[in-house]
Amino acid sequence: MGTQERERKVYRPLRRAGLEVIPDAVPDGTMPFVFGYRPEDIVGGFSHQYETPRLVERLNEDWYNLAVSSGLLVRTRRSRPTTRLCTG
Predict the structure, then answer these.
(1) In whole angstroms, what is the distance from residue 67 CA to residue 16 CA?
(2) Where in the chain are the domains?
(3) How far apart are alpha carbons 5 and 42 in whole angstroms?
(4) Which helix (H) or strand (E) holds 40?
């Protein structure tokens, strides 16, 4: 993923969600793990072993749940489950 594409697809949505983005702070290919500094900051997270057969699907589910819970995505109630990206 190029610099402009990463800015458009990754950094902008995170900034719109109110998250601070530090470009190139984590090397490519690193699996993210959200962790607090103090015990009271730790309210959740996820970790999967690499030998998990459905690793990508489970990570996508976790990231989707995180995006919905942080307000980046809004789940709408319809006959089929759909989501829309919050832009503001």
Answers:
(1) 12
(2) 1-28, 31-88
(3) 32
(4) none
Run of H or E including 42? none
- Token pair 């730790």: residue: 42
Q: Which residues pair with 75 in a beta bridge?
A: 83
pLDDT tens digits for range 57-82: 777 788 888 888 877 776 665 544 54
Q: Which two tokens stand for residue 30?
A: 């690193």
pTM of the model: 0.31
CA distance 3 to 7: 6
CA triple 5-70-31, angle to 5 deg: 55
* Four-CA torsion 86, 20, 54, 45, nearest 10 degrees: -110
User: By three-state DSSP, how is residue 43 classified?
Assistant: coil
Tell me the per-residue pLDDT of 19-67, one tens digit each, with 9 for 90 and over: 777 766 666 665 555 555 555 555 555 555 556 667 677 777 888 888 8
